[in-house]
Write the structure tokens for this entry.
Amino acid sequence: MKTLLLLFTLTVASFLSNAQIINGNFEAPCTSPIPDISQTLGWVGVFSEEIVAPNAGLRSAKLKTVNSPEINQLISWGSDTISGLILQSVNGPINNPSALTVSFAYKYTRVGLDTGLVLINLYDTLTVDPNDDVLLFQGYAEFTASTTSWGNMTIPVQQISQVTGPVNQFYFVAYASYNLLPKPGTTLWLDNITANGLSGIEENKDFNAFVFPNPATDVLNIKMNEDIASVLITALDGKFISNENASLINISELNSGMYLYTITTVSGKVAKGNFVKN
């Protein structure tokens, strides 16, 4: 079972492949279903685009821990104090997982004894049974001191399981506050995230699906100009929720909160995003 433990670290380019982290420089903004939270293409979570003094280009990602009953109600975090959070997954296979590294630029403002975290998880399978997914490789970095200027970091992964098998999913997550008592104001900035050693399915940045309404209560509608092969819905921690091949998805039985979707067409194109269940 995939857990939220150690979901941090980033950077994905490719050896021979065409799959890579989408929008690792955060230069492509998009609309978020969460009020007052701006987001960027390819990424989901609780963060905003930062246009003040990015490491490069015009934007970076700003993960700020906040106290917000409104956001807690929307995503069912469980507490009004919500850590800044960002995540993205990429489907493999990853042919040489032990050689994979993630690189990124970062800044960190620490409040109290907060600890920030960036994590890479590599899993073996992508079946409909979440209990069949085994964590094979992992890399992470912790942030325990404030920095006033941008720094750079590269994180390798290490094998953490004696279980062998193909690595079929790269999963990145970062938190501004990875501790039991997060402090509002703690902020982690990320920019220029790349990964070396990732191979897999090509994701077409120009391909989009129209998913509505968002937030939704009973049914999620999907409009696109190609036939749908599958619609995979997962929780924020990667836990499997459902996998269907329809343009109308019944979500009435889901708990309130934020979920991720991955839509694959019959021609192999992939669109990813998130929605809020009321």
Summary: The chain is about 5% helix and 45% strand.
